[in-house]
Amino acid sequence: MPTLDSYDAIPYESVPITETHVEGLAALGRLFGVPTADPQRCRVLELGCAEGGNLIPMAFYLPGSRFVGLDLSKGQIAAGQRLVDALGLANVALLHRDVMHPTYDLGPFDYIIAHGLYSWVPAPVQARVLEICARQLAPGGIAYVSWNALPGWHTRAVMRDMLLAHTRGLTDPAERLQAAYQFLEEYGPGLAEEAGDLAGILAAEVAYLRQAPPSYLYHEYLVETNTPQLFGDFVAQAARQGLRYVADVDLYTLMPHTLGRAGQAAVAGIKDRLARIQAMDFLRARRFHRSLLTHAATPVMDAPDLDAFRGLAFHADLASEAEIDLGSTERQAFTTPTGARYAVAHPLTKAALMWLASNYPSSVDYAGLYTAAAELVAEYADADTAGDEPAFLQELLDLVAWGAVKPAVTAQAYSVAPDERPRAHALARAQIALGADCVASIRHTAVHLDAPAARLLGLLDGRHDLEALTQAMQPLLPVEYAQAAREGCERMLWTFARQGLLTGTVESPG
């Protein structure tokens, strides 16, 4: 089977997918009226789990929940099982199983995840994925399904067509991948000069693919099946299986006010929610969806419930280079670790982001966040402004919609100070021991490590203080950085602590 062979030969990068975490899925479901299960006590199924890089960290950090992963690749299941065995986790099972085979023996699930699967399998398998979601979602359950969308994916299909033609006749996955990279190298400059109206699009595509993981290039552009579709068609297919659309993880794509003036005018007269989302897909030339589904009989609200929003908790990994002015409504930017920038104007929102940034990875409930922000504004600026809760609510909702602030259903406080003799928790130690260059944070982000960071994390067994760690790290550093080794080690330790990778920063089964 060519597709299975390619996944064994070129395994998909198996890392935490932040937006699939059950805390976020639960929060988004409740925001639209779905009575989702407690993430601390739930059952989760992942279809196409690969090596379990997404599922195993959730199982580690949520010991009260149960997790099952299915994948067709025996090799990737075996690789994931090595990590499960190293951790001694009893709440996760990785199964080598085709999704076309019966799954009724697995029971019901509160959350079902299908990331990077739906658009890349034939139509009968797509129907089966949705059937599993419909039949095995518990009441109030949420299914997450990602898929390639039209009309925007047409632009990527141009590159896909060229790469498929260039690699035609090659059957070995590694040879096909090498030929694809050769095409990007040899044809990239010419496409930028000669492709007319498509030159800019294709140049950007070439630049992106040259730095993307090889598994992404192969499985997105060189596999036999990749079928993007319109939003309306996807929703109709889900409905035929007894499922209802809830929302997308990218909430801003559902909100007309996030469009420009011309876009808002174009959709202003569209009353039907699903038709309006399809129209906004057209305006944005949408390429990708990360959609949430539930049972067709479950009532779903057309817009976020503000009372439910006030019942959530929030966290954000943000920083700001400028001093925050709580006395003005001048817009100031906050930046995520990936470089995304979000500007906020209201003093209350600035104060809230300051609190979230300084307390990450801790989360706080809405009332606690508003109180903390109001106290800061009242102390350093205008007491009247500190009482403007409606403006705060709207701007915070927009930040959640754009992904700058993450919602959760449970407020959790963590310590972020490294111990005198820091110790990496069991998950980080096991991942490092198995040769990983990426570990999973407490907030389900992928923490990519360069060689020095991986080495330092591997040394954190609770027996060494900062001086001993510095001495151990110095031989790995260039001569010109030797004097800065202590400072560098200390900075990395604080980074590890902020990501929840150390014992003492988070309670865990390790």
3D architecture notes:
The chain is 44% helix and 14% strand. It has 20 helices and 14 strands. The chain has helices spanning 2-9, 22-31, 55-61, 74-87, 123-136, 153-166, 173-194, 199-211, 214-221, 231-240, 261-267, 273-284, 306-310, 347-359, 366-380, 389-402, 426-433, 451-459, 466-473, 485-498; strands at 43-47, 66-71, 92-96, 109-114, 137-148, 243-248, 288-295, 313-315, 332-335, 341-344, 364-365, 406-408, 438-440, 446-448. The strands form 4 sheets. It has a 7-stranded mixed sheet, with helices on both faces. A 3-stranded antiparallel sheet has the order 11-8-12. It has a two-stranded antiparallel ribbon with strand order 9-10. Helix 14 (347-359) packs across helix 15 (366-380). The model has no long low-confidence stretch (mean pLDDT 93).
Distance between the termini: 39 Å
* Most strands sheet: 7 strands, mixed
Placed side by side, the strands forming the largest sheet appear as 3-2-1-4-5-7-6
CATH superfamily of the largest domain: Vaccinia Virus protein VP39
CATH topology of the largest domain: Rossmann fold
Structural class: alpha/beta
Instruction: Give the beta-strand count.
Output: 14
Oligomer: single chain
Rg, rounded, reads 24 Å
Query: What is the CATH first-level class name of the largest domain?
Result: Alpha Beta
- How many distinct helices? 20
Shape: globular
* Share of helix, binned: 40-55%
Q: What would the average pLDDT be, to the nearest integer? A: 93
CATH architecture assignment of the largest domain = 3-Layer(aba) Sandwich
Strand content of the residues, in percent?
Answer: 5-15%
Number of domains: 4
